[in-house]
Amino acid sequence: MKKRILEILRTERTVVSGETLSVMLGVSRVSVWKHITKLREHGYHIEANAKGYRLSEETDALFPWEFPKRASQIHFFSETGSTMDIARDLARQGCPDFTVVIADRQTKGRGRLNRVWHSADGGLYFTIVTRPLLPPVHSFRVCFAASTALAETLRELYKIDAGVKWPNDILVDGHKLSGMLSEMEAEADRVAYIAIGIGINVNNDPHVYEADAVSISQLLGRKVSRKRLLTCFLDMFETKLHGKALDNIVAEWKRYTITLNRAVKIVTIKETLEGVARDIDPTGALVLEMADGTTQKVVYGDCFIKDK
Ligand code: BTN
User: Fold this and answer.
1) Residues of the chain with pLDDT under 50
2) Cβ(215) to ligand 1 under 6 A?
3) What is the pLDDT of residue 148?
4) What's the pLDDT tens digit per position in 231-256?
5) Taking the model in full, what pTM does it have?
6) Hey, which of 89, 105, 108, 110 would you mutate to test ligand 1's pocket, going by the most ligand atoms within 8 Å of its Cβ?
7) What is the 3-state secondary structure (H, E, C) of the chain?
8) Atom 11, ligand 1: which residue's CA is nearest?
9) Most CB atoms within 10 A, among 37, 175, 251, 274?
């Protein structure tokens, strides 16, 4: 019902009487009024006067009904600890492939290598549960597909020169715009699920927490719609997951990477390595050329580009 009311108000763009809404929706005027009250509680700017109702201003809301194609698979929270925890619980309970958990704010947002991911209002924070038919050794492809899809989406929507830093950060001109975290459960020969958590600096000011970060609104000098960004990204990511594209994802990822052939420092939980990033091997590991000419593979870690 909320979805229908919003559709009508968005199409009409003018005052729509309670009577008209009740006829169009097949419910009483009292019921219309109750739904409008709920929508206003959800933050929608709906003016009401003697003539009827009018949507006076758009809100960048991420409620399930804002994603008509996917509404049944979207779980929205205005505030939660971490979308990763909710996604993991849903995955263990058997939720369908491509379930998406979204939060306006996270109080315990986490990043890779035990870092905190500050999640203030204005950013986009979500976790997607995927169930790819892949052996665990190929699970990295799903994360590479996500970062490639995000780089392409940012380029298409905003003409931003988005690059991918190994493994899956998105940087613009050396500044971090987005980070990605994945958690997986698997049996010996098959992935049970991969939860991909993505934080994107959209209309927030990430400098407060991280000097080297940037948001889309800071790059463009205007606010953008998180709903549009998420809709386009989910479509793009889904296309990459369910086609032949996944077999070829490393080559696609390489089109956007800013890591290869650069001097880098890699920090893992155990050690710090320095060298030149030469390639990505068939398991997604970074092939590092060391000062003595030998190569070393790094499966998981944080990458800092030294020759900026
Ligand atoms: C990183 O760059 O270290 C990864 C950051 C991942 C942040 C996202 S925000 C949505 C999801 N929920 C979390 O707690 N973390 C991920």
Assistant:
1) none
2) no
3) 97
4) 999 999 999 998 777 888 999 999 99
5) 0.93
6) 110
7) CHHHHHHHHHHHCCCECHHHHHHHHCCCHHHHHHHHHHHHHCCCEEEEECCEEEEEECCCCCCHHHCCCCHHHEEEEEEECCHHHHHHHHHHCCCCCCEEEEEEEECCCECHHHCECCECCCCEEEEEEECCCCCHHHCHHHHHHHHHHHHHHHHHHHCCCCEEECCCEEEECCEEEEEEEEEEEECCCCEEEEEEEEEECCCCCHHHCCCCECCHHHHHCCCCCHHHHHHHHHHHHHHHHCCHHHHHHHHHHHHHECCCCEEEEEECCCCEEEEEEEEECCCCCEEEECCCCCEEEECCCEEEECCC
8) 197
9) 175
